[in-house]
Prior knowledge:
Layout: E1 7-10, H1 14-18, H2 20-24, E2 34-37, H3 45-54, E3 59-63, H4 69-79, E4 87-90, E5 108-113, H5 132-154, H6 157-160, H7 177-186, E6 189-191, E7 194-196, E8 208-214, E9 220-227, E10 232-233, E11 247-254, E12 262-263, E13 270-271, H8 273-288, E14 292-299, H9 317-323, E15 329-330, H10 338-341, H11 378-401, H12 425-436, H13 448-480, H14 488-492
Parallel strand pairs: 1-2, 1-3, 3-4, 4-5, 11-14, 11-15
Antiparallel strand pairs: 5-8, 6-7, 8-9, 9-10, 12-13
Amino acid sequence: MDWDRFSFLYEDEGSFIRLQEVINTWENDKKPMLFKRLIPGGDNKETFKHVFKVARLSYHILDCKTENILGYLEEITQVENYTAYQNILLTSLDAYTVNLDSIDIEGNVSTWHLTTKNEAWTDNRISSPKKVETHLQVDALNHLEKSIKVLLTKFDGQQMFQDPPEFCYKTEPWAMGSELRDALLQTSIKGLTGNVQFDKNGKRIDFVLHYSKLNNESKFVHAGSWNSTTDQISDLYPYSHQSVKSKIEFRVVTKKEKPYYMISPNDTVARGYVIDLMNAIFENIREQQNLDFTYNIDVGPGDKVGNPIEGSRRWDGLIGELLEHKAHFAVCDLTITSERNAVVDFSIPFMSLGISMLFKVDPAPEPDMFSFVNPLSTDVWLYLAVVYILTSLVLLICARMSQEDWVNPHPCNRDPEKLENIWSLYNCMWLTMGSIMTQGCDILPRGAGSRWIAGTWWFFAMIVTASYTANMSTFISNNRRSNNIENVKDLSE
C-alpha cells in the first residue's frame, strides 16, 4: 500500500490474525498505525471522532462482520459531515452485497470479494447465493465430486468403498485416503469463486480477488482484480468508470492579491491568474476524461494564508479550510514552509521565471600582526599599562618597608649580621606581569601590606583577562560573519 498512515478499526482480536500480513509488513515507523476497537451495536461516535478530527487520518481498514458494516458507516457520516477525503477498505468478502442506499457517503469505500454479481450461474443450475460461505461450500462439494470421479477411473468401486471395521475402537486408516488426498491436490475446477486449485501443502493457488468501489448511487461496481499467481492488480474493467462520480463540485479557496485574484469595485466580476488556471484545468478534465466536474472560488476566512492556532492543533485561514475539509484546493501566492508542508500537500513547481540572484562573497581579510590588540581600545591599553607600572611601584615600596619581607639569606645562621630583601623593581614587575598573564610567579610577598596589594592586583587581573577573552571570541566571530545584506532594502540597494 502507498498509504503513509492509516487506522485499523476492528471488533475482536481475531482481526489481528486475519490482517497479520498487513501489520507485519508495515515499514513506516515514523507514522505508525492507529488501532481502535469498535463496539458492535454500541455507540462508536467518540472513536470515529478521534480518528477523523483529532488524528486526522484519511485511510482506514474496517474489519467487522458483514451485518455491522451499515451501522458503522452511518456513524461515520454522522461524525464526519464531509467524507470525500476518507478512504475505507472493507475486509469482509461479503461487503459488496450490503445495501447502502440509506446512507450518503462521498468517500472512497472499497472491498475485496471472490465472486461478482454479474457472473452467470446457469451452468450450475442454482440461483446466485448471497454469502461467500455458500460459494465455498458449493465449490468444495464440486471439487470433492470431481476428485472421486478421478479415482473411479483408476480404481473400481469395490476396491474404493470397503466395509468399515467391525469395532469402533479400531483406528484403521482408509486404504484409499492417501489416494483421495492426492486427487484433491491434483484436481482443479472452475467454481463459483473462480479457479479452485491447491498446491502440495493444501494452500489454494491461482485464484482471483475482485475489487469493487462504491459509486455515486451507493452501489458497489467492479473496478479491478488481483491475481494470486502474478501478484498484480489488473487494469480497471470497461464499466469501472461507474465507480467515479461524474458530477462533483469542487470548492477552491484563495485570497485577494494581484495579479492572482482581483474583484471589481462593485464585487460582481472576479478575474486573475487563479481563475484562468482553474478554467484551464477543469476544461482539460472535461475534454480528456469526459467528466462533468465543476468548481466555485471563494475568498478564505480572514483573507490570509493561515497560521497555527496557539494551544490547539488547528489552523486558521486557507490552511484551516483545507484541514477542516471545507475546501478541496487553495490556489494563491502560497509560500511553502516546513510547518505548512507537514499538514498539507503542495503541488510541484510548474513554472520557472528564469530569475536568479548572484551574491559575491567578500574575500577573507588578511591577518594583521597586531590583531590581538583589537578586542580592547587604545585608551584601555594605556590605562592598563599605567596601572601595571603604578602597582609594581607600590608593591616595591610596601615590600621594602615591610619587616616580614626582610629575610635571613642563610637560614643555618641564627644570628645573621644583615638581612636581605628580594623585592627589587624587576621582581615586582615580574609578579604583576605573571598575574595578568595568568601564569603566576615563584616568589610571593610575605608582608601583610604587600600581600594586600598583590591580592588586589590578582582580582583586577582576573577581570581584565576574562573580558579580553570574551571580546576576542566576539571579534573573531564578527569577522567570519557577513552582514552586508540584512533585509530586502539592502538587497535592492
